[in-house]
């Protein structure tokens, strides 16, 4: 059994839908905690075997600046060795630059990032939610 923690920010609910589906996928045989970034601490990350972070593309291809950006910045002090990390988020008009930069940043912290991050345009459809569940399942293995 693994401890999986999912931490996300969502303004209009699209990334929140993704987070719920990642949770469903991760649940099989694991302990899963789903937290808004507003309620999360570094300790939630440090105590988990696997962590998923979700944030839409905001600003101009940036993480949300009020909560997610400072939280991610604070993670440079966390020991990521042996931890699997998944990234996900919704976007609209961009080409996924925010996610590429976020994945590189997490790799720089020593995290073992699954793939390149799961991006979905606006509201996830049934296929998109399935991809989120599959990501959760990978995270929980
Ligand atoms: C202030 C603001 C800035 C945004 N900037 C970008 C952007 O740079 N690139 C992009 O692809 N989408 C951008 N978007 C679109 C959001 O990523 C998109 O609406 C997403 O579905 C929001 O996810 P949420 O429902 O989880 O908040 C922006 C949206 C807002 C409100």
Automatic annotation (TrEMBL):
Gene Ontology molecular function terms on file: electron transfer activity; FMN binding; oxidoreductase activity, acting on NAD(P)H
Domain Flavodoxin-like: 4-140
Chain ranges passing through the membrane: none
Gene3D superfamilies, per the entry: 3.40.50.360
Function of the molecule: Low-potential electron donor to a number of redox enzymes.
Cofactor(s) in the UniProt record: FMN
Pfam hit, one: Flavodoxin_1
UniProt KW Plastid keyword: no
Keywords on record: Electron transport, Flavoprotein, FMN, Transport
Name of this chain's protein: Flavodoxin
Cited InterPro entries: Flav_short, Flavodoxin/NO_synth, Flavodoxin_CS, Flavoprotein-like_sf
Family the entry assigns: Belongs to the flavodoxin family.
């Amino acid at each position: 059994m693994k401890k999986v923690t999912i931490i996300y920010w969502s303004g209009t609910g699209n990334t929140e839908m993704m987070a719920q589906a990642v949770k469903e996928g991760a649940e099989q045989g694991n302990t899963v905690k789903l937290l808004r970034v507003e309620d999360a601490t570094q300790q939630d990350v440090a105590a988990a075997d696997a962590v998923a972070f979700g944030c839409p593309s905001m600003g101009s291809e940036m993480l949300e600046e009020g909560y997610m950006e400072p939280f991610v910045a604070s993670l440079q002090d966390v020991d990521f060795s042996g931890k699997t990390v998944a990234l996900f988020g919704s976007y609209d008009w961009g080409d996924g630059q925010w996610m590429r930069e976020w994945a590189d940043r997490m790799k720089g912290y020593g995290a073992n990032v699954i793939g390149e991050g799961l991006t979905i345009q606006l509201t996830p459809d049934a296929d998109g939610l399935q991809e989120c569940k599959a990501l959760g399942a990978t995270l929980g293995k």
